[in-house]
C-alpha cells in the first residue's frame, strides 16, 4: 500500500477536479446543463451526482486498484458485494447536499474518506462554492486548502455553553429533533445544508455544534466519515450521544441514533443533556 501522504495527494487532486465538475453543473456551464433530477427513496439524484461519482471512483481505482481497496459510493453501493474482505474502504459522497445543489443555496460538498478497521484514517471534504477543500490524516491534523494558500486549522473552544451556535438542517427535521433543539441550553441557530458544509462552518468558527438525530431515515456512512475526521483532527469532537465513537463499514450503512459534533469543551455536557431531553420527550409521548 502507498504511504498515506501519497494517497492523500491523489485524493486531494481528485477532490479539486470533482469540485470543478460540480461547479460547472451548478452554474450551468456544461454542454447540457439539464440536471435530470430523479428521486431515489424520496431523495433527489441528479446527473451531477452520477457523473462525479463515476469520476471519483474511476480515478481512485486507476490509482489504487481493487486488490487492497474497496469503493463505496452513494450512487453505486447496492451493486458492490465484494466488500467483506477489504481492509481499506473508500467511502464517497459525490454530492452531499443535493437538495441545496438543486435549490442553489451553495451548501453542497464532496466527501472522500478512507476507512480502516471501521474508522476513518484519511479524508477530503471539498466545498466547491467556497473554492476550498479541507483534508486530514489520522493523527496528522486538519488543513484548509484554497487556490492561494494552505493553512492548518486548530480549534480552541472558549465559549460558555449558552453562547454556542447550533448549525441545523434546512430539511431533515422531525418533531423529536425540534423538541431537542428547543430545549438545549444553547439556542442560537444557523441553517446550513450538507453535513460537509455544516462541519466546515464549525471549522471556520461560525458555528459550534451539529446534531444528527435519525428518525425514519438516518445519515449514511458517506455522509459522516469524511466530515468527522476533518473535525476531530482539528481538535473537535464527533461522537454518539453516549460518548462512543462512530463506526463505519459495519454491514449497516446507516448511522442510527443521536450523533453530536462540536468544537466545544461542553461536548460531554451537551451529549448528557441531549439524552436527558430525549428521555423527557419520550416520556411525554407515552402519556
Q: In words, what does this structure look like?
A:
This protein is an alpha+beta fold and 287 residues long. It has helices spanning 4-26, 47-64, 98-103, 175-183, 195-203, 221-232, 267-286; strands spanning 38-40, 43-45, 69-73, 88-96, 109-116, 119-127, 132-137, 142-145, 150-153, 165-168, 188-191, 209-213, 237-240, 258-262. The protein has a seven-stranded mixed beta sheet with strand order 3-4-5-6-7-8-9, sandwiched between helices. Strands 11-10-12-14-13 form a five-stranded mixed beta sheet, sandwiched between helices.
Can you give me a brief rundown of this structure?
The protein has 287 residues and is of the alpha+beta class.
Task: Outline the secondary-structure elements.
Blueprint (H helix, E strand, L loop, with lengths): L3 H23 L11 E3 L2 E3 L1 H18 L4 E5 L14 E9 L1 H6 L5 E8 L2 E9 L4 E6 L4 E4 L4 E4 L11 E4 L6 H9 L4 E4 L3 H9 L5 E5 L7 H12 L4 E4 L17 E5 L4 H20 L1
Parallel strand pairs: 3-4, 10-11, 10-12
Antiparallel strand pairs: 1-2, 4-5, 5-6, 6-7, 7-8, 8-9, 12-14, 13-14
Helix pairs in contact: 1-2, 4-7, 5-6
Which keywords apply here?
about 290 residues, alpha+beta, single chain, seven-stranded mixed β-sheet, about 35% helix
